[in-house]
Recover the amino acids of this structure.
């Protein structure tokens, strides 16, 4: 029997609040059984209890902690930090800080979640300004983790190595990959390509003794190919790559819908092909891969998309449970200590690595 | 009647050599008339003449300049510069240098084309290490130009402004947009987002008096939305965004093909919807948007994809002709002078712009 675990939920976050959060608990249990998993729900008690009744969930699964206070979706992070104390997201994170809960999930304001998590839990990866966000990206081979897709706009070599360490441990813990392969996102695969940070990170990954299966540089199209299990990049490039990809997927999806409704014949064809097309779109359904952990904190924090459905929120819960039950935190802790040691006594830099980019 | 123009072609470049290059001339003339447009083809005379005969093209349209020498697709740029003299790509570029031809098109080795173009033509934009490559990106609203998708790995604020100037002139000359709108690619739309280079570039574009319709920061998903006509970014991010998008498009296309051949019923549906699906895929056909100009040189150089079809090479020729006949070079020249003046006497930097990124 799996070990008991308590997951803290911000029941008021996201576009739909308690209906999606409590619905997410039901959906998670329906799909994954959820043996030994209990939940701590923070927010409006009456609203949460009404949803629990609808979903047939009792006190044995969901404990409710009332608060009236909510951080709005458009509140600035600095404001949320000043005024957010006692809000549903604040209390949900605090339950992880005190050790009561093993992980927290919120579909609320990303900036506020980051800022309050950092304030309450503190960074465990010393070089990071902000938590790194990892995206689970559907590929020809399954799922590839891409990070940072968040807000570490300028990432130096040490930060890129931290992303590699955390991303690898994430893939092992959540996607069950035995020895995940790691690549650094670059504009070419030759050693001398790219800027200094990415070349220095490559050297540290090759020579630092992190016990990672580092495979070298990968390019943008390697993400969807699934060339490696973990694609590491700075938060600027990663954020732009992710949003560009979402834009392209939406564009093609819209063109396809338009095409398949453009004539009677096309509509008839679409009806016949419907089961096949539905099975296909399940493979790239954003709700199936919803849930981006904020890595680099002393505690597990998972961000759900604000517009996620109950099924989507259930996916985010799954990630929180799998991370919480795994040895992710210990494993990352050990590797980050190793990184600190390497940075204090760096391996000698061979001349070949100092060549200018081409 | 349009003014007469001579276009220089590297007939040996690309995966298919003269068949696609000469076929491209035929295709260009079939689609665009090509009145007043003549071609100078560099490469193996016998092979070129054989293709000309097949395509029904005579001396009045195509002049052949024989050379045996070819730069291989996998030759390193430095090697191509040392040993490339007299090759088809070298001679094709030289015809632009001497003023004989108005523009050159090659489907050959990108690195070699860049290096030899830079050597023979020299950069006109003083801050650039290498020519910037612009991609014509299909969007909900038509075409958006994205640059640099090439090799200027670290682009400072002045370079980003150069990309904006050149991209805007390109959209006006080639895609017939009257007053193209310009955006800077970033991780958010607020003023304080992103790294220093992109924030400083925003300030220069707002205050530098370049007569550009600058619309501020855009995000990755704004590319496919067509939010602006020109998206400006450094060569690292741009290259990764483009290749990531290509990977995603290919992934979705493959899933769709698999779905539509997965069962008899799906196949029947696909057959009925075939005309609609074909019309749709024409909208994102890479050959229809083939041709990436190398901007920032004293001369017009257009890179065709190495694997392009004759129709694709014809699209690249179209871009070369439109750029060659437009006031692109003069317009960019004037704006780059303005940039030099602004950099020598920069507008005062308001405190708001100096805030750290968020």
């Amino acid at each position: 029997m799996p070990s008991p675990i308590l997951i803290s939920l911000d029941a008021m976050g996201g576009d739909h609040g308690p209906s999606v959060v409590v619905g997410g608990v039901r959906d998670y249990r329906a799909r994954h059984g959820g043996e030994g998993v209990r939940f701590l729900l923070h927010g409006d008690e009456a609203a949460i209890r009404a949803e629990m009744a609808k979903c047939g969930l009792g006190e044995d699964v969901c404990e409710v902690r009332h608060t009236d206070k909510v951080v709005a979706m458009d509140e600035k992070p600095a404001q949320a930090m000043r005024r957010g104390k006692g809000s549903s997201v604040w209390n949900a994170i605090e339950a992880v800080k005190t050790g009561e809960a093993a992980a927290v999930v919120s579909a609320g304001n990303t900036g506020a979640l980051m800022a309050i998590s950092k304030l309450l839990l503190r960074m465990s990866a010393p070089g990071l300004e902000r938590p790194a966000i990892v995206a689970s990206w559907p590929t020809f081979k399954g799922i590839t983790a891409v990070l940072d897709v968040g807000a570490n706009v300028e990432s130096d070599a040490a930060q890129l190595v931290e992303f590699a360490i955390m991303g690898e441990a994430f893939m092992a813990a959540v996607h069950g990959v035995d020895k995940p392969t790691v690549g650094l996102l670059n504009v070419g695969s030759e050693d001398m390509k790219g800027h200094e940070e990415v070349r220095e990170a490559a050297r540290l990954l090759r020579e630092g003794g992190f016990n990672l299966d580092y495979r070298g540089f990968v390019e943008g199209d390697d993400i969807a190919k699934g060339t490696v299990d973990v694609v590491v990049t700075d938060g600027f490039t990663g954020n732009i790559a992710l949003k560009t990809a979402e834009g392209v997927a939406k564009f093609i999806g819209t063109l396809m819908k338009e095409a398949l409704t453009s004539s009677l014949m096309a509509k008839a064809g679409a009806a016949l092909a419907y089961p096949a097309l539905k099975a296909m779109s399940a493979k790239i359904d954003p709700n199936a891969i919803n849930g981006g952990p904020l890595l680099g904190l002393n505690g597990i924090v998972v961000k759900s998309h604000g517009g996620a459905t109950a099924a989507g929120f259930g996916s985010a819960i799954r990630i929180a449970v799998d991370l919480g039950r795994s040895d992710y935190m210990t494993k990352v802790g050990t590797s980050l200590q190793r990184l600190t040691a390497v940075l204090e006594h760096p391996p000698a830099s061979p001349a070949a690595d100092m060549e200018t980019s081409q």
